[in-house]
## 1
Amino acid sequence: MLGCTLRGGSCPLVCLWALLLPLVSLHSLNQHGHRGRDVRDHPKLLLVSFDGFRWDYVDRVPTPNFHALMDEGVRVEKVENTYITKTFPNHYSLVTGLYAETHGIVANEMYDPVLNRSFSMETDSIYDPRWWDEAVPLWVTNQRAGQRSGAAMWPGSDVEINGTYPTRYLPYNASVPFETRVEQIIEWFSAPDEEAVDFGVLYWEEPDESGHNLGPESSLMDVVIVNIDEKLGFLRNELRKAGLYEKVNLIVTSDHGMTQLSPDKIIELDVYVSRDLYTWVDKSPVVGILPKEGHFEDVYSKLADANPHMMVYKKVEVPEHLHYKHNIRIMPIIIEAQEGWTVMQNRTGRFMLGNHGYNNSLPSMHPVFVARGPAFRQDYVKTSMRSVDLYPLMCHILSLRPLPNNGSLANVRDLLSPEPTTPTPSVPARVPSYSYAPAVGSLLGVVMVLGFLVVYIRQVTLKQLPSLPLRSREMSQPLLQEDLHL
Ligand SMILES: [Zn+2]
């Protein structure tokens, strides 16, 4: 029976094929649609942070690569970052659009009284997801939307946040050169369509480290800034070589600036209050003080008016506009040093010539911001923005629905090209390329059914049907009769 003849025995299979063909076509559509994102049309975005790159460094020494990006795209002169102006809080604000009190990374050094655990950027404590899970970074949102993300050393990007790692990422290792990070992330962007990332984050530790050690006023910083510009030049060249320069939207920014310190501007807390009465949680210039049980008022009263170069807040009295109050990881007493001043317990600790972390209204704390690419205007300078506005802007570029955040796309929409270069959401954009498949499949099915009918009618007119008895199975499948007859 399986040895069907062309004329009659093939009919059940032909019918089956004819009926299934359109479905097969549809199945192919779904399968293709699932794994075959049209990456060529989907927007791409690379967010780069040069840690501690102050906004005005680009005007201090020749920085041709930064200025090329400004000419080709946009510059924002004043970016108000989030309080406190430290590395971990601000990098998380950039990718969540949230203030520190909301995203939960409130400092580089933290204590969580519920977890009864401490966080330090110097230890493996950062790999505990519970510190990060109060927010969802953009790379996770991007992946939940079916896209792919790549992360090269961005703070927190090698942590399993909300149960998710970036699609591709490098575990943090400060000794990996900038050039290697760039080559890796460009490889991820350049992968075959179904493997390529759409969103990348890239981090470099300088000029922060040199800014701390030398002080931003040092003429030695000039060389450091020129070197960062050369690194940006390397990135631009690698993007060009990969054919990505005109396709990738490139944002170059930072977490904070840097200000000059002086050994003459030191506040020694031991002069005012015994260190036995409190735990020193976060470091200068915004210090988190956790009084020992029963000593809150005692510690506060001893510090409150102790030194004119520091503000001392009870947590509940921190000004609302700083958005640094509503989180249990913010300590009961907060000391904020005046710009340029250093808070220490005594002078035996490590002293730096440059620091950041001060009030985010200070220009010296503000980071650089330049961007270029198909989504951005050209040769456009904007006076100011808030760093939390970057998140909704990036979501817009990536056609992602932003999660609730503290930013506003309306505040930064003028950075975007007025031309309709922002592609429509990816799912509708994919449909047209597959729309012929079901129609072709159906047409082929109809043709084959008609062909079968012609053959069958011709056959029954030439042959006499066998008489009963036939089993009911065969009655319902008259096309089998020729084989059975044999
Ligand atoms: Zn930093």
## 2
Amino acid sequence: MNIIEEAKQFFYSTIPEDAPITLKAHLEGFGSTLGYVLISLENSSVINEELVRAGMWLHDCGHYPLENEVDHAIRGEDRARSFLKNQGYNAILTEDVCHCVRAHRNNDVKPTTPEAKLIAGCDSLTHLIFAPYVDMVRIGLETGVKSSALEKLERDWRDICSFLPKDLTIQFSPHYRTWKNWIELRESGSN
Ligand SMILES: [Fe+2]
Ligand SMILES: [Fe+2]
């Protein structure tokens, strides 16, 4: 088995049996998004595809348990490092993958390598395409607690614009505007 297949199996092992389908669906969507972005890159030879695909499978391995206060990127980095060390991967590859995991939120730790930037951008593009905002808004309306869907959309768009090629941001800007209008309309109660 190679590192990609091992990372995939490890990711699935971190998901509880009774978990909703959401995270698995996100990873399957991510695989399609990443494939599309890779063929759209003008200079994809700078990307280590094995590293980026292993990073993709591990980037959300810290997601569960949900009730834990620790940021899933921090927990994911720790889990990914232990897993890769146990599998016998060398320190350089291990740290390169761990950086992809730790920086994928582009939050307190920023992505600095081509692979980590690609994962941060593709993670957000996957959200824009597969639209977790719909469920967030629905739950907000059902519970009467305003959702953070708009903030998530704005973060996603920020990372798409920061880390993906300009022609992709032009291509997907109608998605962004459509979701922004939709969320604002639904949350204002106008529709
Ligand atoms: Fe994540
Ligand atoms: Fe993700």
